[in-house]
Each structure stands twice: as C-alpha cells, then as structure tokens.
Amino acid sequence: MPQMIFVNLPVADLERSTAFYEAIGFTRDARFSNNLAASMVLSDAICVMLLTHDFWATFTDRRRVDPAQEAQVLLCISREDKAAVDAITEAAVAAGGMADPCPVQDHGFMYGRSFADPDGHIWEPMWMSAEAVEKGPAEVSDAG
C-alpha cells in the first residue's frame, strides 16, 4: 500500500462541512463515514477526516483551537495550472468558504491562492511550473 496522509479536521457542523468538501471536488467515502466523522478523499494518497468536535476530543487532550481565529496549519495542495487554482478557490467561495485569507502569490513560476472552509481551516491551492519543479524555483527565477 502506498504511503498516505490523513488530515484530521475538527468541524462544528459535519453535514455542512461534508457538503463543502464535496462542492470543491472531494469524494465522500461512505465506508469510513458516520454521524461522527466523514472521510473525504482528494486523491489516492490524500484523505481528509472531518470530525465532530466531540469525536475530535477523543483523539487528544490538547485544546482545540478555533481555526477562524487561530492558524495551526496551512494545508497546501497542488493544482495542474493557474486556472485550476482559481477554480477551486471560486468553488470554495460558492460553497460557503472565504477566498484569500492569505495573500495571493504570483511569482511567475508559481501561483497560489488560499481559501478557508466554513470552520476557518486554511487551504492553499498552488501551481508551480514544470521547469521550476525540475530545476528549482531559485534557478528559474534567476534565469528570468
């Protein structure tokens, strides 16, 4: 089995959050979803587990932060091109999220935006040119 990542996010309203993530392209995996959690699949290697606050509390004794007020992580996901970065951000807004809680980044070889889900968790869709991926952004930037 390939190595995977499961991002666990506490959510205030599981139904609302599930609908939001479906609207931006995730697929709900019913095998790992119930009234306490929803498994949302982004790719073969990336899943987001949406957990009700009460269920989240069974995993850790640490204080749950309010993602609308505090940032603990920025979740960056690659997109195939600039248009796809804009498309997922616009879909997030249409589904009840907030666009660009972080500054837009446009460096020519790399383009990134951000959106917050209804709970405030920040996602950063980004695109980087194939040349920058191959050579490294500093080399591409210095050559231009």
Automatic annotation (TrEMBL):
PROSITE patterns reported in the protein's UniProt record: VOC (PS51819)
Coiled-coil ranges per UniProt: none
Matches recorded under Gene3D superfamilies: 2,3-Dihydroxybiphenyl 1,2-Dioxygenase, domain 1
InterPro entries assigned to the protein according to its UniProt record, in alphabetical order: Glyas_Bleomycin-R_OHBP_Dase, Glyoxy/Ble-like_N, VOC_core
Any one Pfam family match given in the protein's UniProt record, by short name: Ble-like_N
Protein name: Glyoxalase family protein
Protein species of origin: Mameliella alba
Lineage: Bacteria, Pseudomonadati, Pseudomonadota, Alphaproteobacteria, Rhodobacterales
